[in-house]
Every structure is written in C-alpha cells, then in structure tokens.
Sequence to fold (208 residues):
Amino acid sequence: MKAQSNRYLFAAAALVVAVILLGLIAGAGWLVSADLCISNALSFQVGRSDPAFISFMQGASWIGGGTPRWIIVILLSAVVWRWCGQRCAIALAGASLLSNLASNLLKFAFDRARPDVIEHLDHVNSASYPSGHATSAAAVYLLLAWFAPPRWRSLAWALATGMILLNGFSRIMLGVHWASDVVGGTMLGAAFALLGACWASRATSRLS
Fold:
C-alpha cells in the first residue's frame, strides 16, 4: 500500500511539473500555431451550428464553473460518502477546492490572454492558463470514478471521460480557452485527483 501511495505522489508531482512546463512553453509562444489550428477548427464548427447546439455547449460550460460546480461537488461528495465513507468524501471535496485554488494561482502567475479567435460565447473574468473548468472536471470526476464501487465503476469511468471531454471541448468551442489551457487544466486536476486518492488510501490502510 505504501509503494502504491508513493507512485501516486510521484505521478502527481510529475503532472504538476508538466503543467508548469506547458505553461512556460505556451507563454513563450511555441504553441500558437497548434492552438490556433484547433481553435479555428472548433470555432468553425460552432459558426455552422444551430443555436440549440451553442446553447448546449454553454450549458455544459455553465455546470462546470461557478455556483453549479460547487453544488455538484457537494452532491457527489455525499454520494462518495455513501459509497466508501467520510474520508473519501473529504478527499473529493478537498481535491476540488485545492485544485481550484492552484488553478487560480497559476492563472495569476502565467497571466495568459484569452483567445480572440471568435467573440467569447461565455462570460470570463480571469486569465486563460490553465482552464479552471478543465481542472475541476478532472479532479472531481476522476475521483468519483476512483471511489465508485465495483458494480458502478465502468459507468463512473465513462461518465468521468465524457464530462472531462465535454467540458474541455465546450471551453474551446465557445472561444474562451486555448486547447493547451484545457490540457494544462486536465493535468492539474488529475494531479489533485491522485493526491486525493493517495490521502484516502493511506488513511484507509492505517485504519485496517
């Protein structure tokens, strides 16, 4: 169990380093072509889409941030508490809160400008890198899948994958994030998910 926890910690640290390196690379302008290519392709799809699809993407983005995000975190923490106890619930809620704080700190540090490919189709009030929506989605839904009981695990992992992808694509398609912002946010959220899983597993092993 200790060796497994150490692997979680090492993987989390590697992901955090990768997030910082990606931010530096993006800040140096080395990803401009790739980011523009992806944003132009997805924005083109939005431009050709009907209002219902745009509203759907705005709804997907809405539930991933602000007050809806924290309502979902509270509800999923209650579900996880029922599945595997108080420590798992605390791990999920704590990972969500701490990853959000880390995302905000990194936004302030990198101060990356938002995309200007299309007019923003969602409200924004902070810097671009890393995506807070992507960070939260990865931290919350990966831990939800991690803590799911065996009979629900396949469904939970499918939900986690779907929510992470939907959240990320919505932010790019709405013109408020670069693809590299989403990748950085997803890695940051995954790092905190690993830390939450590590903390919960260590606590459980001490009690057993």
Observations:
- The longest helix spans residues 179-207.
- The two ends are 11 Å apart (CA to CA).
- The chain has eight helices and no strands.
